[in-house]
Specification:
Elements (H helix, E strand, L loop, with lengths): L23 H35 L3 H29 L1 H18 L6 H29 L5 H9 L1 H20 L1 H22 L4 H4 L8 H10 L1 H22 L2 H7 L5 H29 L1 H16 L6 H4 L5 H12 L6 H6 L4 H17 L3 H13 L1 H18 L15 H4 L1
Helix pairs in contact: 1-2, 1-3, 1-4, 1-5, 1-6, 1-7, 2-3, 2-4, 2-17, 2-18, 3-4, 3-7, 4-5, 4-17, 5-12, 6-7, 6-12, 10-17, 10-19, 11-12, 12-13, 12-15, 13-15, 13-19, 18-19
């Protein structure tokens, strides 16, 4: 937590984002959004850590496994668009509750799958809920945390992503061999349902969204505003797309790559991925502090560069890197630190759109680009046969480098008031 903030107070001001200090209400919002995001990402990536054992039991080919992965990504796009629209119409809180319930139920039902079709259906349900939670949670943080603390507290929430992967790595590498993959899905679904209940009971609604005066403009005015800012929207789309490709080229097949190509056991591969996620947690936590001090763009660019460099020793440079003790683990930790770039994506987008369309645009941009990752596991499978498994995953390094350059096209938004665009958009 930020040490510069004053001691928590019991009473929150009329508008939370204008508070001169952080209150207990702010901390409660951050904690609840963090819980929802941890299990959102845990449920998204868990299948990647279980796919080898699932494929053996259900007799799935590599293409079948990639298809299941792809459908999860595709459904997050639909969930992101649908829940993003609802978040601007019915509020941030109901969307966080509803999406968390859906992805928790979908993950729980994966335990009952006995065929490829059933697995795809339940991963589809989980994907719809997973796609809806992120934008509502990031909108909630952006609209309640004061500008001077916004990036770091958005990053604290986004740290749920590497924590979710860390839990998934532990579950896949150590728990699944002991109790089986079906029991792991059951244990994964239950915390999400509990998180949804906690959010319903204790999370307040965004007071910025509740100010109806900023929402009395028709959809034609929204389209006009977006058309006048189409360059920013397009740059954000491609920035998120290349960084999504970098991320999922790394993570979607990483556990399988370590086991299949590098002949590591589940414990050894699990330890490497856990080390990577420890680096990621550090990267996510540090991003906001650095971005609040030095700006969004330079930190975003530096992180993309670190991710690009860190991927190479663990993939195409493996034969050389394994001769140096600890280098592969250190490079994976560096790549993990670089994935902290995603902790800045929510802040970057939330500061570029007015309140009444913030949730819709954020949900659409993030989840459409993530939904396009439907093709990434299939691309990796195809590239693997032509250029090898390591080289296929190393393509992610090129995407990370592209994102490090592209971010400089966007304006710098450090210190921007979250409602600064509302009047102009109206």
């Amino acid at each position: 937590m930020d040490r510069t903030a004053a001691a928590p107070r019991d009473e929150a001001p009329a508008l939370l984002h204008l508070s001169p200090v952080l209150t207990r209400v702010h901390y409660r919002i951050v904690a609840l959004c963090l819980c929802a995001w941890i299990f959102d990402f845990f449920d998204l990536v868990l299948y990647s850590f279980l796919l080898v054992s699932i494929a053996r039991e259900l007799h799935l080919s590599a293409t079948d496994s990639s298809l299941v992965l792809g459908f999860s990504f595709l459904m997050t796009a639909l969930g992101g668009i649908g829940f993003g629209f609802l978040g601007d119409r019915i509020g941030r809180k109901p969307v966080i509750v509803g999406s968390t319930l859906i992805y928790g139920a979908g993950t729980l039902l994966c335990a009952s799958a006995h065929s490829l079709t059933a697995l795809v259906v339940w991963r589809t349900v989980a994907g719809l809920g997973i796609g809806g939670e992120w934008a509502a949670g990031q909108s909630m943080i952006a609209e309640t945390v004061p500008a001077r603390y916004r990036a770091r507290y958005a990053c604290y929430v986004q740290t749920g992503a590497p924590l979710g992967i860390l839990i998934a790595a532990i579950a896949g590498g150590f728990l699944a061999p002991a109790i089986g993959w079906r029991a792991v899905f059951v244990l994964a679904g239950l915390p999400a349902l509990l998180a949804a209940m906690a959010v319903w009971l204790w999370l307040p609604e965004s007071d910025v969204w509740s100010n109806r005066a900023i929402q009395r403009v028709g959809w034609r005015a929204d389209l006009t505003w977006l058309a006048s800012h189409r360059q920013i929207v397009l740059v954000l789309f491609f920035l998120l797309l290349v960084n999504s490709e970098a991320y999922w080229f790394t993570y979607s097949w990483l556990p399988g790559y370590l086991e299949i190509s590098r002949k590591l056991g589940s414990h050894d591969s699990g330890r490497l991925v856990i080390g990577m996620q420890i680096g990621a947690v550090a990267g996510y936590l540090a991003f906001g502090l650095l971005a609040d001090r030095y700006g969004r763009r330079p930190v975003f660019s530096a992180y993309g560069t670190m991710m690009a460099a860190g991927l190479l020793p663990a993939t195409i440079l493996w034969p050389w890197a394994e001769r140096i003790p600890g280098l592969i683990g250190a490079s994976m930790a560096l790549a993990g630190f670089g994935t902290g770039i995603w902790s800045g994506a929510g802040t970057l987008m939330s500061e570029l759109f007015p309140t009444r369309m913030r949730n819709t645009i954020m949900g659409m941009l993030l989840n459409v680009t993530r939904g396009l990752q439907f093709f990434t596991p299939l691309m990796i499978t195809a590239l693997r046969t032509r250029m090898g498994f390591a080289a296929a995953l190393a393509v992610g390094s090129l995407f990370a480098a592209a994102g490090a350059v592209l971010v400089w096209v966007l304006p710098e938004t450090r210190g921007r008031l979250i409602t600064s665009l509302d009047e102009g958009a109206a």
